[in-house]
Amino acid sequence: MSRWTRYYPLALTALALVLLVSVVISLLLGSVSFPLSTLAAALQFNGTEPLAETIIWQLRLPRVLTALLVGAGLAVSGAVLQNASRNPLADPYLFGLMAGAALGATIVSIVLPEQQLSMALGAFVGAMLAIVLVLAVAMRQQRQRIEITLLAGVAVSFMLSAISSFILYFAEPFAANRVIFWLMGSLSRSSWQSLMLIGPPVVLLLLLALALRRQLDALLLSDSSARSLGIRPERLRLVLLIATALVSAVIVSQCGGIAFVGLLVPHMVRYLFGVTAVPLLLGSALLGAVFMLWVDNLSRTLLAQQEIPLGVITSVLGSLFFLLLLRRRV
Amino acid sequence: MSAIYSLQQISLSYPQQRQRTQVLQDISLELAPGELVGIIGPNGAGKSSLLSLLSGCPAPDSGKLLFAGKSLASIPLRQLARQLAFLPQHNPPLTGLSCYQVAALGLLPHKSWFEPDNDYDRQQVLLALSQTGLLEKQQQPVESLSGGEWQRLTLARALVQQASVLLLDEPTNHLDVKHQHQLLQLLLQLKKTVICAIHDLDLAARYCHKLLLLDQGKVRAFGRPEQVLQPALLSEVFELPVAVSQHPQYGWWQVQFISPQVAL
Questions:
Q1: What is the ipTM of this complex?
Q2: If residue B219 lies in a helix (H) or strand (E), which one and from where to where?
Q3: Chain B interface, mutation test: which of A3, A87, A222, A229, most B Cβ atoms within 10 Å?
């Protein structure tokens, strides 16, 4: 247990305040910067600042809220999977989701370009295909389901990646670039519509995980202890696997690949607030949201006239943070 | 008094390398409520398997297993957890949970999805921790506990669970002599039905109301300690000469195995 574990309600409140401030700053940042007064006027929708109103309501607010939900969703998924499997390396992409999404996006934009299907739809279908393949293997196992899911996820990843690589290899370079850039992750396509798609599953996952907080804690002990407390560990894991897979598939299909958030944020929260489900889940949701907001802010503002892919920033920041944390722990 | 457990011709086997290994054979017995029953026998006799079976998982291959008059398999797991606690044998896990948090997990079968812990629950947890002598360690992480303390903590969790039946797999295993006696005294004082696998025959004879002697998956004897601890039977099962005596002052039964002479 860390020193801060006992003060977690205070720390969570502080994190919530940081999130609120981050949201306000994110709304002000961008190629057009506003003073705070303009933001306040625009948010009131009273028509005094028509340009700011359009930028805030049509572009920045949906994007900021999407960033928040994506960060929270990935971090909560990671926290749930890591605790449920007692495996610190579990992460929302363990189902071969990314490879599935990549294949879907590749097929939609390269094999079937005349159908005019959205890459998001293709990616979602591809991600679901990967989940179904992995679960078809894992469902048959009664024991060590998470381990088998992890291994099956790796195998499915390689299989689906090979197919997309094969297609990309013969594709025209421009179309291939489009797919590859899409996979690096971006929130630039955020809209109120994508927010509506991502929001409900993320909120439902958080509520489900909070409702099952005692069950999640019991799984930390051992399967036999959990069973003695009236839990069916395998069934509980399957429910959690499917819930997190759905959330991750929706996020991947809307925003592309955003690595490391689901793996890293829960570990940072565990280090700060301990392992019990309530501080871990709420802390992961808040810290994931803050982290994603600032990653997106960097992606939007670091280079003039150009966005840096989110996946690049999360991976660089994530791995640095992580290595520092590991060094301190030893 | 009606039996808490009723076993009729129970058999259990595990799959092992394409064959099924028979671990329990044709077990029929009745266990009365409120008794402390010790399961004794050599390694591989089926003690742990019998305890797992009594906890409801795995189900027997054949035979009838009744818990409080109902088929054990038909009782929903959550409902069963309010009446029955199984304390398997394992080391403290690397969880980062505190002792208090582990003991509080015993509340789980009594709580609905969003129901928070109330003051009464917290008192129950603290009471269980003080009964097991762990009150001072309540904020410590479970990793810092010794094997014996962890054993007592799992008992504290079972007490919070308010189960009337406790199944324990070798609870005295990691304990020093003082804590062995303390634990068994506590189990006696609880006035619950306690069924535990136990290696130390002297402790078993001293504290258990009844003993169940298993050998190669079969019941060899079941009854009061003096009925079960027959020298001829014990030496056959444990494959060592045995002397059974009564303590001259207290009258407890004592078992001494006579190992073959080794020249020192």
A1: 0.83
A2: strand B218-223
A3: A229
Closest by Cβ to B95, choosing from A220, A228, A231: A220
User: Taking CB atoms and an 8 Å limit, are B101 and A217 in contact across chains?
Assistant: yes
Q: Could you list the pLDDT tens digit for every one of the 330 residues in chain A?
A: 455 566 788 889 999 999 999 999 998 887 777 788 888 877 777 777 778 888 888 888 999 999 999 999 999 999 998 888 888 878 877 778 888 888 988 888 887 776 666 778 888 889 889 888 988 887 776 666 667 878 888 899 999 999 998 998 888 888 888 888 888 888 888 888 889 989 999 999 999 999 999 999 999 888 888 888 999 888 898 888 888 888 988 888 888 888 788 888 998 898 888 888 899 999 999 999 999 999 999 988 888 778 888 888 888 887 887 788 778 764
Place of tokens 């944390």: A325
b/e map A165-181, b = 16+ CB within 10 Å: eebbeebeeeebebbee
- Closest residue in B to A270 (Cα) is B96
From chain A, pick out residues whose CB is under 8 angstroms from the CB of B82: 230
CATH 3.20.20.140 fits B33-55+76-233, yes or no: no
Domains of chain A are: 5-329 (1.10.3470.10)
Note whether B106 contacts A274, CB cutoff 8 Å: no
- B33 touches A: beta carbon within 8 Å: no
Q: How far is A92 from chain B (nearest CA, A)?
A: 21
> How far, CA to CA in Å, does B55 sit from each of A107, A190, B136, B183, B264?
52, 52, 31, 21, 46
Please count the other Cβ atoms lying within 10 Å of the Cβ belonging to residue B259.
8
Judged by a CB distance cut-off of 8 A, whether residue B130 touches chain A is: no
Q: Do A228 and B85 touch (CB under 8 A)?
A: yes
